[in-house]
Amino acid sequence: MVDIGFYIVAFAILAGAVWAVTAKNILHSAMALIGSFFGTAILYLMLSAEFIAIAQVLVYIGGVVIFVIFTILLTTRLGDKAEIAPGMRKLLALALSGTLFGTFVHALSRTGILMSTKTQIADSNYASIERIGMRFLDPGANGFLVPFEIISLLLLISVIGAIVIARKEEV
Amino acid sequence: MTLGLCLGLAFALFSIGAYGAMTRRHIVGMLIAVEIMLNAANINFVAFSHFRAGDNTAGPIFTAFVIAVAACEMAVALAIVISMYRRHKNLDIDKLRDLHG
Predict the structure, then answer these.
(1) DSSP structure string for A92-124
(2) How far is B97 from chain A (nearest CA, A)?
(3) What is the pLDDT of residue B97?
(4) Which of A15, A40, A79, A125 has the fewest C-beta atoms under 10 angstroms from its C-beta?
C-alpha cells in the first residue's frame, strides 16, 4: 500500500527533475522544479517528517522557485531559448553522471543497505514540531542553539548582500 | 518503502542534478540543477533518521539548516544574475568572463 505510493511519488520527483534539467524553455524548467519539490514534500510526509515537509513547501516552492521565476521574467526576453550545451558535451555529461550514479549504487550495494527490509525504526514523532523546536532552543551539548542563532545572522547578511549586489550602480 | 529505495531515489536525483549542472549554459538553469542536488541531500538526511536508530531528531534539523542556507545562497546568486544581466544583457556562461570561471 505505502510502497505503491512511494513508487508514484518517486516517479513524480524524478520526472520533474528530468524535465527541469532538459526543458528548452527556462521558465518550463522552473515549473517542473515546483513539481519535483512538491513530490519531495509528500515523500517527507510519508517519512513522518511533517515540519520539514511544510518548510519545503513554504521555503522552496513559496520562496526559492518564485524568486527564480521573477529573475527569469526580469532577465529573459520572450521567446528566448535556454542555452543547452552542444551534443558532444551533452553525451559526455550523460556518461559522467551515469558513472556517478553507478558508483553510488555500487558503494551502497556493498554495505547491504540495499537488501535490508527494515521499516521505520524511529518513533513516529521523531520529527514533530515540538521535538525539533526543543532541540533548536536547547543550549546544552545536544542542542542547536548557537547554529540556530548564526543562521539568522546569515539570513540577515545575505539579504543585505543581495540588495547591495543587485541595486543600480549610479545612485 | 525501505532505506535502500529512498537512498536510490536520492542518488538518481543527485545524478540528474549533476547532469543538469554540466549541460546547462544558462546561469539560472545551472542554479536550478544545484537546487535539485541539494534536495537529494535533504532526502538522504531524512531517510537515514527515519530508518536508522540513533539521534533521530538531528537529521530533520540538519535538513532545516540546509533549506535555510539554500535560500540564502539563492538570494545572493540571483542578485548576481540580475547585476550581470544589467551589465551584459546576456546570461550565457560561455560568454560571461567577469567571474573568471
Answers:
(1) HHHHHHHHHHHHHHHHHHHHTGGG------S-T
(2) 16
(3) 67
(4) A79
Mean pLDDT within B16-20: 94
Residues of chain B with pLDDT > 90, as a percent, come to 50
CATH topology of domain A1-88: Four Helix Bundle (Hemerythrin (Met), subunit A) (1.20.120)
**b/e A97-130 (16+ beta carbons within 10 angstroms → b):** beeebeebbeebeeeebeeeeeeeebeeebbbee
The three grid cell numbers given for residue A133, joined into one nine-digit string:
523546536
Cβ contact, residue pair A47, B46, below 8 Å: yes
How close A80 comes to chain B (CA, Å)? 11
Q: Do the domain assignments include residue B28?
A: yes
**How many whole angstroms separate alpha carbon A55 and alpha carbon A50?**
9
A152-163 tens-digit pLDDT = 999 999 999 999
pLDDT at A122: 67
Q: Residue B23 belongs to what domain range? A: 3-88
ipTM score assigned to the predicted complex: 0.89
Q: Considering the entire predicted model, what is its pTM?
A: 0.88
Contacts of residue B76 in chain A, CB cutoff 8 Å? 158, 161-162, 165
Q: How many domains, in total, are found in chain B? A: 1
Which residues in B lie closer than 8 A to residue A82 (C-beta atoms)?
Answer: 24, 26, 29
Domain assignment of residue B61, yes or no: yes
Distances (CA, A) of A9 to A124, B8, B15, B19: 21, 13, 18, 21
**Span of A1-5, A46-50, B30-34 with lowest mean pLDDT:** A1-5
Asked if A99 and B22 count as a contact pair (C-beta separation under 8 A), the reply is no
